Amino acid sequence: MAAKRKKSSKKNAPFFLKIALVIILIIFAVSQKDVISDTAQNVFLNDDKDSSLIKAGAFNIQVFGTTKAENSDVMNIISKIIRQYDIIAIQEIRDSSGTALPQLISLVNSDGSMYSYFVSERLGRTSSKEQYAYIYNTKTIDPISDPFTYPEPENTDPFHREPFIGSFKSSEGLFNATFVVIHTDPDEAKEEIDGLYQVAEYAKNVLPVDETVVIMGDYNADGRYFDENTYTPMKSKGYVWVIDNILDTTTGTTDCTYDRIVITGGNDFYTGDAGVHRFDTEYSLTDDFTKLVSDHYPVYAMFSKGMQDKTFDLFEIPKTAGDAIFGSDNESVLDESKNTANNSPDEDNFSNFNTGINIEVTSIDVISNEVEIKNSGQETVDIEGFVISSSKTKNSYVFPKNSYIQSRDTIKLISGVKTDKEGVFCWESINDVWDNSGDAAILYNTRGDVVDSIIS
């Protein structure tokens, strides 16, 4: 007799239980959609961030106080914005209780980030006081000294809210800079922007080294408050405005470049990458919600950490400015008798320096990554701080100190490593600088005006 098979004691689960289990799993997945999406976005942002760069910015958060701090949705967006910066200068903090900023920092750090801050005293000539703050990532930025408000000369009062000055350095690498944050009074924007020149010159002496000075914030430098094309000492030789006049830094219906970043004292670390942070587009916000966050967008600039002592390689940063390469005999390059530019910030010198020159971008070869620039005029021209940019790749090169083109001479800008050949400047990048499918080279002066351009 054949042996009987023993029945399994494990019964099949009823069909309706299987259906119920599937429904539960679907509900759980939907409930976690935002968490999964946000986590994926954070992973993308972290992977996309170049560890050899410093992102610095300025953000007017429009009446940042207890009322805004009570809006959790708005605070979440602001905290996400801040986490994208190594250091960011905040303006328009209006909070007599002093609780809103610590609350924001706590929220920023709620994901494990390690940000800290310095905040100024309450500033202003009227009863409506404001504060500035530097918020920085302690993993990437170290303060060199405690920030302080600009000590206005005795018997003067050039600023409604005195600029807040702070020196910081990268936790690794050689980057160091003194930052100046300003929120000008719109009714006195022209006078205060002019006054920033003295602040910048003062800031150059804050650190006992040749350093970068970054003056950023809400300049109110547009519209009815300020004529972008007018003279100001802040447009003197050696001052580079990296936020272009065509950009809109406001979230409302206006189209104005109120917020600016100006770099002086050395462009050694500036990569040529700067712009407006459109957080509304990044986070798919409605116009109404965007205005709850602020009436301004942040502005930013990217800097190299200068990690030469930590296997840092400039070839990895295609947007960085290279060094000018001249012959060893500087006298053969610069004829002082023909040099019309000087360091005086007077209006006449500004006109002589930036008008009447005849600089042309004469050729571009996108395959060999070469651009030629010619001085067709009668005078030697100082092009320190001039910027040449690609319209396609957005790579930019800032001409360094002692960059001159003599009358009738042509200089060449190439990729690759340094050369001792006279009149040749190098991107110091092994990557393609220009778009091989077609590109345009645009040359800007220190005011951000287009000097010339050429299409390949």
Give an account of the 3D structure.
There is one protein chain. With 456 residues, this protein is α+β, with helices and mostly antiparallel strands. It folds into two domains: 50-312, 4-Layer Sandwich (Deoxyribonuclease I, Chain A); 321-455, Lamin Tail domain (Immunoglobulin-like). It has helices spanning 15-31, 33-48, 66-69, 72-83, 100-108, 189-203, 279-282, 287-293, 347-354; strands at 53-64, 87-93, 115-119, 131-137, 141-143, 148-149, 164-170, 176-183, 212-218, 240-241, 259-264, 270-276, 299-304, 324-325, 359-365, 370-375, 381-382, 387-390, 396-398, 404-405, 410-414, 424-426, 440-444, 450-455. The strands form five sheets. Strands 5, 6, 7, 8, 9, 10 and 11 form a seven-stranded mixed sheet that branches. The protein has a six-stranded mixed sheet with strand order 3-4-2-1-13-12. Helix 4 (72-83) packs across helix 5. The longest helix is centred in the first third of the chain and has 17 residues, at 15-31. The relative contact order is 0.10. Residues 1-13, 32-48 and 309-355 have low confidence and may be disordered.
Instruction: Estimate the mean pLDDT confidence.
Output: 81
Domain unit count:
2
β-strand number = 24
Low-pLDDT parts are 1-13, 32-48, 309-355
CATH superfamily of the largest domain: Endonuclease/exonuclease/phosphatase
Q: Class by helix and strand content?
A: alpha+beta
| CATH class category of the largest domain | Alpha Beta
Euclidean distance between termini CA atoms: 94 Å
Helix content range:
10-25%
**Number of alpha- plus pi-helical segments:** 9
